[in-house]
Specification:
This protein is mainly α and 132 residues long. It is 50% helix and 8% strand. The chain is built from six helices and two strands, in the order ααααααββ. The chain has a two-stranded antiparallel sheet with strand order 1-2. Helix 1 (7-18) packs across helix 3 (34-47) and helix 2 (23-30) crosses helix 3 (34-47).
Amino acid sequence: MAADLDARIRTIIIECHNEGMLPAQIAKTLKLPDNSVRRIIKLFKETGSIEPRPRAYGPKPLISDEKLDEAVGLLAENPNMPIKDLIEKLNLNVSQTTMRNALKKRRGFSYKKKLPGAPGAWTRMYSKSAQK
């Protein structure tokens, strides 16, 4: 719950603590869980900030940002490069789907064929979610 509290409430908690109120009194006054108040005070003492710690949930990406930037550079040189060749040049051990998804979701690229039977090309899609 402590991570869900907005900055205004966190600031009030720290101000009350600095005025000498006990965490239990602050929690009762603000109708918050005692542990949430204690965690915010502890965080402030350790970091000097009321901002929550960054969350590190979920699996780490299989393709680093550096490798992805390198892939973007290779695609700028040769937009018709097959995904398999791109993976080999970067010396990655990932599937073609993983590489395609990383390029699409994290860098805004899409693979499109211009005409049936013609070789495709990587193009950058421009949208708010695709911009780095």
